[in-house]
Amino acid sequence: MPIYEYKGFDSKGKSASGVREAESIKSLRLSLRREGILATEIGESGGFSLKGSGKKSVFSQDIRFKRLFQRTSVQDISLATRQLGTLLQAGVPMVDALSALIDQIENEGFKRTFAAIKSDVNEGMALADAMAKHRDFTNIYVNMVRAGETSGALEVVLERLADFTEGQAQLRAKVLSAMLYPMIMVIVASLVLVIMLTTVIPRISQIFEHMKTELPFMTRILISSSNFLRSFWWLFIIFIGLGGYLFFRWKKSPKGKAKWDRFKLKVPIFGPLLRMVAVARFARTLSTLMSSGVPLLTSLQIVRNVVENDALEEAVDRVRDAVKEGEDIATPLRRSGQFPPMVVHMVAIGEKSGELETMLNRVATAYEQQVQTKVSGLTSLLEPVMILLMGGTVAFIIFAILTPIMQMSQVVK
Fold first, then answer.
1. 356-412 and 217-231 are packed helices; what angle lies between their axes, rounded to 10 degrees?
2. CA distance 162 to 85
3. What are phi and psi of 48, to 5 degrees?
4. Dist CA 94 CA 259 (whole Å)
5. Parallel, antiparallel or unpaired: strands 15-21 and 3-9
6. Is-contact 290 296, C-beta < 8 A?
7. Which of 398, 386, 387 lies closest to 196, judged by CA?
8. Same fold, 74-165 and 168-413
9. Which H or E run includes 39?
10. What's the predicted TM-score (pTM) here?
C-alpha cells in the first residue's frame, strides 16, 4: 500500500501534517476529511506533487530540507525498538507490527523512516537490510537485528538492543555533563575577566595617572594587560580563530588524530575516565553482540568503531587479527597494554569457563559504576576548585587596585 505525506488544516484552523498509508490520494483525502482535516497538499512520501499537477510543491522542498537536518533522538530509537519487540513477542506479524509502530511514533521524520522500512519488508526484504538503508540505525544496531533474524530470536534481540541503546546514552550523557560544567565555568570566568579589563580597569586607571608615586608591580601588570587587550583585541580573535582552525584540521588528519587520541588517554584525571568509558563500551557492546548471535570476528570489527579512540581501535584490530589466526582474546588484549589487567583477567576466565559474554557484561557493569563514581567525585571537586581560581583572580584585581589607593591616602596624611 502506498505511503503518502500530507499537509493541511484541522477543524480549528491549525496546520496539520503527517504520514499515512492509503490505497490512493482520493481515499486518503476522504479519510482525512472524516477526521476533520482539510488536506491542501498530498503526495507520495519522498516525492511530493501538488494536487496531482506533477509540479513540485514548496512542501516537498520543506520535507527534504527537514530530512537533511532533522535528527532522531536515542530515546526515539530505543522506544521504537522496545515497542517493536513487544509487538513481535505478542505474536503480531512483522508487517502489522510495523504498521502499529508507525501509528505510535510522534517524530515525523522517524515515522517516514519506518514507513519506508515497512514498504521494503512488505516487498520481501529482510528487516536488517531495510534498516541498513537509513542513517538512524548504526552498524551495531543493524548487525544485531540481522543476527536476531538469522537465529529466530528477533524479539529477544530487540529487547537487548533497547536496553543497550538506553545504557550507552545514559553513560555518554553523564560523561558529557562532567566535561560541560568546567567548560562553562571557564567561559563565564573569562568573559567576566575580559569585561573587567576592558571597562572597569580603564576607568580606575585614570585615577592613578596623576599620581607621582610609582605604582605597585601588581597594578602595573593589571593596567598593562587592560591596555593591551583594549588595543589588540582583534589580535586575540585572529589568534583564537586561526589556532582553532589549525588545531581541528590537524586533529582530523590521520597522524594528528592518532597523537591526539593517545594524548587524551594520558591527561591526568580525564584520561583514566575516558579509558574507563571506552572499556565499558567495548565490553558491553561485545557482550551484547555475542549474546545476540553475531560471530566473534564480526563483533570485534563492529566494536572497534565504538571505542572512539585511535589507540584502542588499533588494539582491537590486533586482537581481531590474532583471533583470526586461532589465538584467544585475552592474550592480544594483554599485549596491547591499552586494557586494564582486570579486564584481561576477566576475559581469560570467561574464555576458559565458556561464559565470555557474562564476564564481559560484569566488566561493563563494574566500569560503568566506576565512571559514575568518578564523574560524581569530579563534579563535586571541580566546583570548589573553579571557585578558588575565580576568587584568586578577583582577589588579585582588588589588591592591585586597593594598594595604590592606600598609598595615596598615606601621602595625603
1. 110
2. 9
3. -75, 140
4. 47
5. antiparallel
6. yes
7. 398
8. yes
9. strand 38-44
10. 0.64
Which CATH number describes the domain made up of 74-165? Answer: 1.20.81.30
Give me the residues paired with residue 3 across strands: 21
Structure-block grid coordinates of residue 246:
589549525
Q: How far apart are CA 115 and CA 344, in angstroms?
A: 44
Q: Does residue 45 contact residue 18 with C-beta atoms inside 8 Å? A: no
CA dist 190 → 187, 194, 197, 223, 242 (Å):
5, 6, 10, 17, 19
Tens-binned pLDDT, residue by residue, of the chain (413 aa): 566 777 777 777 677 777 766 667 777 777 777 777 877 777 665 544 444 434 444 444 444 444 444 567 888 888 888 899 889 888 888 888 888 888 888 887 888 888 889 888 888 889 989 998 888 888 778 888 887 887 777 888 888 888 888 877 777 777 777 677 777 877 888 888 888 888 878 877 777 766 666 778 888 888 888 888 888 888 888 998 999 999 999 988 988 988 998 998 888 878 888 898 888 888 888 888 888 788 888 888 888 877 878 888 899 999 999 999 989 899 999 998 889 898 999 999 999 998 898 899 899 888 888 887 887 777 777 778 878 888 888 888 888 888 877 776 665 55
Domain ranges, ordered by start, for the chain: 3-69, 74-165, 168-413
d(CA 230, CA 285): 53
Task: Name which CATH class applies to 168-413.
Answer: mainly alpha
